[in-house]
Design goal:
Rossmann fold; eight-stranded mixed β-sheet; 257 residues; binds S-adenosyl-L-homocysteine
């Protein structure tokens, strides 16, 4: 990669960070759904360690923190998100046991068999579901849980347009039974799966973005990177509105054998 490309990439990266920094969530989800998933997990104690991988600014992490006595570490690649994460923890007086760290889900900064719960909402796709659940398993104690959300097909057949869209952006999307089989093959008991309700996309993810987009376009008027980026986000939203009967996010909860 030459220097010119590096600086263009960095510029894009900073813009995307700025766009999402102002939003409570960087992926589909809701506090209700986080708590629903938590219900499938055996009670945690003040000594339990939870890792939230790809935590973003910590929308779901703070929900977990308010409903468990555990120690939480949020891990994200983007330093700007981790700064906001730690500010959010401080505002909620949770800094003693909720810490954000910059790092990659590809090289977890934890001891093997040290975690009591791995959480990851709307983020495992960055390394792929199958790779993530297999690699992360080593960091869990036996008998503890993983809970992740992942894009999944609801049906065996689907219109070509939405099929092609996903093949281009995340070809690892698959049906729920196939994802459950992957979880079983990775050495987990598949404890539960449930589909995230539509409001996780519409009210909690797309509606706040629609507002942020106007302000962002005004601020970066004439900036092609910003304009193209927003156009893509709007396209993605329109695909969801048209094809939501065929795909969505699903929570997969597994217990390490
Ligand atoms: N869990 C949050 C954020 C989801 S967006 C929510 O549901 O709101 C996906 C997140 O994954 C982003 O914050 C992005 O910065 C992070 N990410 C992308 N690649 C990563 C990697 N390799 N390691 C850690 N985090 C990563």
């Amino acid at each position: 990669m030459n220097n010119e490309n590096t600086s263009i990439r960095e510029f894009d990266f900073n813009l995307i960070c700025e766009y999402f920094s102002g939003l409570e969530r960087q992926g589909p989800g809701s506090p209700e759904v986080t708590l629903k998933a938590l219900e499938f997990i055996d009670p945690l104690t003040a000594d339990s360690c939870i890792a939230d991988l790809g935590c973003g600014t910590g929308g779901q992490t703070m929900v977990l923190a308010r409903h468990t006595p555990a120690q939480l570490t949020g891990l994200d690649l983007f330093p700007a998100f981790i700064d906001l994460f730690n500010q959010n923890a401080a505002k909620l007086h949770l800094s003693e046991r909720v810490k954000g760290v910059v790092g990659s889900m590809e090289h977890l900064p934890f001891e093997k068999e040290s975690l009591d719960l791995i959480w990851s909402e709307g983020a495992i796709y960055n390394i792929g579901f199958e790779r993530g659940i297999n690699e992360w398993r080593d960091y869990l104690k036996s008998g503890t849980y993983i809970a992740v959300t992942e894009a999944s097909w609801f049906t065996n057949e689907r219109p070509r347009e939405i099929h092609d869209f996903w093949m281009e952006h995340y070809p690892e999307i698959d049906t729920i039974p196939n994802k459950v089989a992957q979880m079983q093959n990775a050495g987990y008991i598949p404890v539960a799966t449930f589909i995230l309700p539509e409001n996780c996309w519409t009210d909690h993810f797309y509606a706040p973005q629609a507002q942020a987009q106007e302000a962002f376009l005004k601020k970066y008027a004439g900036n092609t990177t910003a304009i193209n980026y927003i156009a893509f986000e709007r396209y993605e939203m329109s695909m969801y509105q048209r094809y939501k009967a065929y795909y969505g996010y699903v929570f997969y909860i597994g217990k390490k054998l």
